[in-house]
Amino acid sequence: MMRSHRLVRAAFAALLLIGVTVPTASAHDTPTEYLLDPAGTAAQDIYPEGIAARGDTFYVGSTTDGTVYRGDLHSPVATPFLPGGADGRTSAVGMKVDGRTLFVAGGATGRVFAYDVRTGDLTGSWQVEQTGAPTFLNDIAVSPRGDVYVTDSLRPTLYRISHHDRRTTATETLPTFLDFTGTALTYTTGFNVNGIVVTPDGRYAVVAQSNTATLFRVGLRDRSVTPVAGVSVAGDGLVLAGRTLYAVERQGDVGYVVTVALDRRSTSGTVVSRTTDPGFDDPTTAALVGRSLLVVNSQFGERAAGEEPGPFTVSRIRAPR
Length: 321
Fold this sequence. Notes:
Layout lengths: L3 H14 L15 E4 L11 E7 L2 E6 L5 E5 L4 E6 L12 E4 L2 E5 L5 E6 L5 E6 L9 E6 L5 E5 L4 E5 L10 E2 L2 E4 L13 E6 L5 E6 L4 E6 L5 E3 L7 E7 L2 E8 L2 E9 L6 E7 L7 E7 L2 E6 L2 H6 L7 E6 L3
Parallel strand pairs: 1-5, 9-13
Antiparallel strand pairs: 1-25, 2-3, 3-4, 4-5, 6-7, 7-8, 8-9, 10-11, 11-12, 12-14, 15-16, 16-17, 17-18, 19-20, 20-21, 21-22, 23-24, 24-25
């Protein structure tokens, strides 16, 4: 049976799609939920995963066909920006906006794409080395100087695109930054390294190993790898605001934004809170916009169970403190 919040969401979506105006308290209200307007081969099966935001604009990707949706914080509906399948982008997972460039990780395709957010033109394309080993490019983080880091949940590898090499004229090999083999971070069965963030000083990355519920600090100068002490969180997507880390965590049908206070060097942390919301439906990741978090509702549970999904949405919640 469809959960009650899905029934409300379906009714809301129907009103939007037939052009009925949903009343708001004032013209300055910002929606607390955004509908992804179905399009392309994904049709009603978008199953979104990643999100990126800059200013009032946000982008969300479909894992089904690679469509990238673009929304505005003040509009309740996000519409297709980049069509699924274009440029070989048949799945869109983690993504980040830096300046006028949107970077998109392609999941099991082993691809990374870069697009001009003003024109939609492809400006860069990379592919993991074709060894025959399974790959799943999952999340992306950009350092203060513009280096692009990409996680792989199946290969024990962290990739880096130098800030000097963010444009290509053809598909190039995705450069390896760090091989985790022999470090404190050991890959096991299942999805390993998932979300990634870079500290404001550019010295460290923090990554989430989802299947062991462990966070690790990676030195971006010396390539050191150390567990973040005091924290157990099965993080998917990560968001960093100063020394406050937000980790999106799914536990069955219940999803949380886990707030972690990191120490100055990101060597240890303390879980401050676990926040949920009635609109969450298998949340995967988030993006910080002002004092709010935009949280993607993937409905991966429905896909795994073979159930009919409800309308696909992004929830906006106040960022926990």
